[in-house]
Specification:
The protein has one domain (2-18, 41-282): Alpha-Beta Barrel (TIM Barrel). It has 10 helices and 10 strands. The protein has helices at 2-11, 48-51, 56-60, 97-107, 118-123, 125-133, 157-175, 192-198, 221-231, 262-277; strands at 64-65, 68-69, 85-93, 113-116, 137-140, 181-182, 202-203, 208-209, 241-245, 281-282. Strands 3, 4, 5, 8, 9 and 10 form a 6-stranded parallel β-sheet that branches. The longest helix has 19 residues, at 157-175. It is globular and about 45 Å long. The chain binds zinc ion. Zinc ion (ZN) binds at residues 27, 91-92, 141, 145, 185, 249-250. Residues 27, 91-92, 141, 145, 185, 249-250 line the site of zinc ion.
């Protein structure tokens, strides 16, 4: 299993965006791709034609460092792989909704990446294990999911390294898989690339925001349709990373950020069907399908 992952990583060509100067608010709230044109691809992304063909160097030069691919020097904002690829990502679990989300993914034979917090992983280890056992990636979303303004003195490299290292250890112990990717809570970027890189890990943001954090507390046609619309607003991107949520880890009150995920689950089949109909291959962030 691991050898297969490595070979895919050697083929992988990630498109990275420059680290943003700062983030404004929650990962559930602020799309990181651009502050001025939030629905457009990041201005720093390479043209699609430049990002879809693996170079000879990528094929012949090992890029593996330890158990993870050598981290890039900037935040990853686009999915790996050749041709049209899309990476679905689910943040803030493990949570009960993961079980149904994984079942929907399995129905279509696709896999996704789940960014989990250490705290939730301790509380729900069987969910983390189930997500991984079904072929999905379980990755690092910090231990406490605190935003910089919630940490005395803000995020420092030492604070982040501790948060990510502890979560990585917890998730690796739970899933028996290597943990190589980090999504910083809220999409904040202060000191993230350095801290994540020092752990040999890769920091990942997103380029399409499903905005499912603000759904109502019940399934409604409008709320489900809005998530489908938002999660498929690719604006011409050939390698989108889609942000969705399987749980709630932010510390805003529930009336600000909903803990309900019924509309996310209801929207997921339509989201998958849309990407399949438009020629996308679903990939995990390590490039495997
Ligand atoms: Zn989050």
């Amino acid at each position: 299993m691991w050898g297969l992952k490595v070979s895919h990583r050697l083929l992988r060509r990630v498109v990275v965006g420059l680290a943003l100067a700062s983030a404004l608010t929650a990962c559930a709230i602020r799309p990181p791709s651009s502050m001025t044109t939030p629905t457009s691809p990041p201005p720093t992304a390479s043209p699609p034609s430049a990002s879809v063909t693996p170079s000879a160097t990528a094929l012949t030069t090992p890029t593996v460092q330890g158990p993870c691919q050598r981290p890039p020097e900037a935040l990853v904002t686009h999915a790996p792989g050749v041709g049209r690829t899309v990476a679905l990502t689910f943040d803030d679990g493990p949570a009960p909704a993961d079980l149904e989300i994984v079942r929907v993914l399995a129905r279509y034979g696709v896999h996704a990446t789940f960014f989990e917090t250490g705290r939730h992983a301790v509380d729900n280890p069987t969910v983390s294990r189930y997500v991984a056992d079904q072929g999905n990636l379980v990755e690092d979303h910090s231990w406490d999911h605190l935003y910089p303004r919630e940490v005395p003195g803000g995020w420092t490299a030492a604070y982040l390294t501790d948060q990510f290292a502890r979560t990585r250890a917890q998730l690796a112990a739970t899933t028996s898989e290597h943990v190589c990717y980090v999504r910083p809570p809220g999409g904040f970027v202060d000191h993230v690339v350095g801290a994540v890189g020092s752990l040999g890990m890769t920091a990942v943001l997103w380029s399409v925001d499903g905005l499912d954090w603000k759904q109502p507390g019940s399934v409604t046609p409008d709320a489900t349709a809005a998530i489908v619309t938002n999660a498929t607003r690719v604006e011409g991107q050939e390698h989108p990373i889609v942000l969705l949520h399987s749980g709630k880890a932010s510390h805003e009150p529930d009336f600000v950020v909903s803990p309900f995920r019924g509309n996310t689950i209801a929207a997921l089949p339509q989201i998958i069907q849309w990407y399949l109909a438009h020629g996308y291959t679903f990939v995990r962030l390590d490039g495997t399908t």
